[in-house]
Design brief:
single chain; 398 residues; alpha/beta; UDP-N-acetylmuramoyl-L-alanine:D-glutamate ligase; Adenosine kinase, small domain; nine-stranded mixed sheet; five-stranded mixed sheet; 15 helices; 41% helix
Length: 398
């Protein structure tokens, strides 16, 4: 076959909930929730607990991944809403974007069920990570919200500070992340680039160690000059994130992460339009992760830092365009939507920031502004990082 790009391993079935503030407020009253209960670090043993944590993150304007104790809790949560079924997972969404732009790819999935079969595009050649007897569906619930939405019920009263998304799932396939190192390895021998999704949902360290061992073996099948990228994530167990970086760094060419993941890594909140704070953060991360190059993408800008930054300019630009097109048009944006998005004006504050941080750091950084999307009334805020990763790959192919 002629695939130049390979991807793995996360595939999931997403239930993208249709936001309705009245439903949120109704559930606050139904579960008798109060403002002093809203916390981000509680035991997730009930649907009530999921509501508490979701509201806490919405109030703070921080995205998160929530893993309840039981998968049934996810289904119970979703039943309050209308929703559409889509495919998720960073490598999967990135492969779908490549298909949309006319490029085939290879994908090893972590699950394989009726929805994966129905929704996977024709140009994505799939190696299922599970056999035919394992076709259960563990839905990933996507609660996405625009900025400036007021939520008011009982004594809870806040306005969401920014666009945000809450991911809720307990997916046995994601928790165990099957990796077919030899079978998939034989398929990727001639690929030019490989995109790894993160291992955020694995909560058992023995499982993680085994999957990283298999990943390292799998990547050894690639040509010596292949480009290897990982799109990072907010890990349920932060120490696992450092382990993944440490183990894979010798084989990685690039780590990409968003602003939430950057701030989780440095364990503090920064002002993303303050060039001095951003400089300090990216230099800290770069020193710790030990890879040649990092990309950070935010709602205001995207930057590449490290070695040979000029080689990533096309990837950076296309990452911003793909994420912006998804923000505007959702899961089914077209090539025409991509072209129209490319011509949109940049955010003015972001243009100033990019110039300032370039002046401070110099040749080791390339930073570009994000598009001004303030006109979008019903944005899609889930999967933007996945779309950005697809744009990185698309940029490599041009």
């Amino acid at each position: 076959m002629n695939e130049r790009i390979a991807l793995g391993f996360h595939t999931c079935v997403d239930y993208e909930l249709v936001w309705d503030t009245s439903i949120i407020e109704r559930q606050i009253r139904a579960f008798n929730l109060s403002a002093d209960e809203l916390k981000m670090d509680i035991k997730l043993d009930s649907e009530r607990a999921v509501w508490i944590m979701s509201l806490a993150y919405l109030k703070a304007g921080i995205g998160c991944e929530i893993v309840p104790d039981k998968s049934e809790t996810c289904v119970e949560f979703s039943r309050h809403f209308d929703y559409k079924i889509t495919l998720g997972g960073t490598p999967t969404r990135a492969a779908i974007i490549l298909d949309r732009m006319g490029y085939p790819s290879l994908l090893q999935t972590s699950c394989y069920n009726e929805h994966v079969k129905r929704l996977m595009p024709s140009k994505v050649r799939v190696l299922p990570g599970v056999d035919a007897d394992h076709a259960e569906i563990y839905p990933h619930i996507i609660l996405q919200c625009a900025g400036g939405v007021r939520i008011q019920a009982n004594d809870i009263d806040f306005i969401t500070p920014r666009e945000n998304r809450i991911l809720i799932s307990r997916d046995e396939y994601s928790l165990n992340m099957p990796i077919l190192d030899d079978a998939f390895g034989e398929m990727i021998r001639e690929c030019e680039a490989f995109l790894l999704g993160s291992f955020t949902e694995i909560v058992d360290f023995d499982v993680l160690k085994d999957r990283i061992k298999k990943t390292k073996k799998l990547l050894s099948y690639l040509p010596k000059d292949a480009t290897i990228i990982i799109e990072d994530g907010c890990y349920i167990k932060s120490e696992f994130r450092h382990y993944v970086h440490q183990q894979l760094a010798p084989q990685l060419d690039l780590i990409s992460m968003n602003e939430d993941e950057l701030q989780q890594y440095i364990e503090k909140t920064i002002e993303i339009l303050n060039p001095h704070e951003v400089k300090e953060a990216i230099e800290y991360v770069y020193k710790k992760v030990g890879v040649k190059t990092i990309i950070i993408h935010s709602a205001a800008w995207a930057l590449v830092y490290g070695e040979q930054v000029d080689a990533w300019k096309s990837s950076l630009e296309n990452g911003v365009i793909m994420a912006s097109a998804r923000f505007r048009k959702g899961d089914y944006f077209t090539v025409d939507d991509y072209k129209q998005t490319k011509e949109l004006p940049d955010k003015k504050d972001s243009v100033i920031f990019c110039r300032q941080i370039k002046d401070i750091i110099g040749d080791k950084i390339h930073c570009i502004p994000c598009k001004d999307l303030s006109f979008v009334k019903n944005p899609t805020v889930v999967g933007l990082g996945d779309s950005f990763a697809g744009g990185i790959l698309f940029g490599l192919l041009l």
